[in-house]
Here is the input.
Amino acid sequence: MDKLIKQGFVKSYGGRPKRWVPNAIAKFIFLDHKSILLRYNAVIRGLLNYYSPANNFYKFGSIVGYVLRHSCAKTIARKYNLGTRAKAFQKFGKNLRITAEKKGVERTYELYIPESFKNIKEFKLSKGFIGDPLMTLNYQIYSQTALDDVC
Here is the structure.
């Protein structure tokens, strides 16, 4: 939670117990809907991989399932001037789904939230250094992303 607070996904309010409120990422508002979802998915998948061997991985599901979903909803609500997260969920559904068409081919994009958070106790290793998933916030935003397009 400290990293999410530091990167701006969550606001923390003092008191006992502390209260955490999901926050919009304002610099994503100027991206298109698809790009916002792809950036949030990069953070979610990275965090899920990093914490996958944890003994209390199921508890982590509440962070991903609530905090990052509602932060994304707040970002999209601000983008479309909807006012509230509830209106974003009402317009785009539980996982903020959108269908985009490019060159006659339709693709559906949505927030990646797994159905279950069972403890698998293993890393999904790949070759090379993956790095901190929260660093996607520091990527330069010069143009709309084409991360899922063919090179």
Summary: The mean pLDDT is 81.
